[in-house]
Specification:
Helix content: 40-55%
Low-confidence stretches: none
Strand order of the largest sheet: 3-2-1-4-5
Number of helices: 5
Distance between the termini: 26 Å
Radius of gyration: 17 Å
CATH superfamily: NAD(P)-binding Rossmann-like Domain
Order of helices and strands: EHEHEHEHEH
Structural class: alpha/beta
Strand content: 5-15%
Number of strands: 5
Length: 178
């Protein structure tokens, strides 16, 4: 199957390594101009070089921004005001004793795994709707439905993404269907 994304811009969050980097490579191979993201300039630029090495001629931009913060999200939106494809891949996980996970850790997981993608979707989706084309994808995990006890904080955040997907099928008040 060939997906043609020529003329489209795709942002993949958390794309400095792993699944996000693989997604960025694939979108570039489909012709999209790709924005890769990491928390530091070094990781973002390394990811951009990697995509170019795997997809010669790819148009790739590396943006450093901690998307789990309001300032980081604002920096991304300033650097890349519109996208056609948003892949909310950013996520963190770790094994911890469920009774030892403190409130700050829970907040961090919610900021990174849930709110970062919600903020960007809220910012980019209206433009996609106005242009009549766009895609938003949240990367999930089987931990959303089979939550490991030692990763309860991760599993709960991935379950929240499933719930937000179900809620997104309803149109917001005042929005016409397209």
């Amino acid at each position: 199957m060939r997906i043609d994304l020529e003329g489209r811009t795709a942002l993949v969050t958390g794309s400095a390594q792993g699944i996000g980097l693989a997604i960025a490579r694939t979108l570039a191979a489909c012709g999209a101009s790709v924005v890769v993201n990491g928390r530091s300039a070094g990781t973002a630029q390394r990811a951009a070089r990697d995509v170019r090495a795997h997809v010669p001629g790819a148009q790739v931009t590396g943006i450093a921004a901690d998307l789990a913060t309001d300032d980081g999200s604002a920096a991304m939106l300033d650097a890349v005001p519109d996208v056609d494809v948003l892949v909310n891949n950013l996520g963190i996980f770790a094994s911890e004793d469920p009774l030892e996970i403190d409130d700050d850790t829970w907040r961090r997981y919610l900021e990174v795994n849930v709110l970062a993608g919600v903020r960007l979707t809220r910012a980019y989706l209206p433009g996609m709707m106005e242009r009549g084309w766009g895609r938003v994808q949240f990367i999930g995990s089987d931990s959303a439905v089979a939550i490991p006890a030692e990763m309860i904080h991760y599993g709960v955040t991935k379950t929240a993404l499933l719930a937000s997907r179900a809620g997104s099928r309803r149109r917001p008040p005042g929005r016409a269907s397209r």
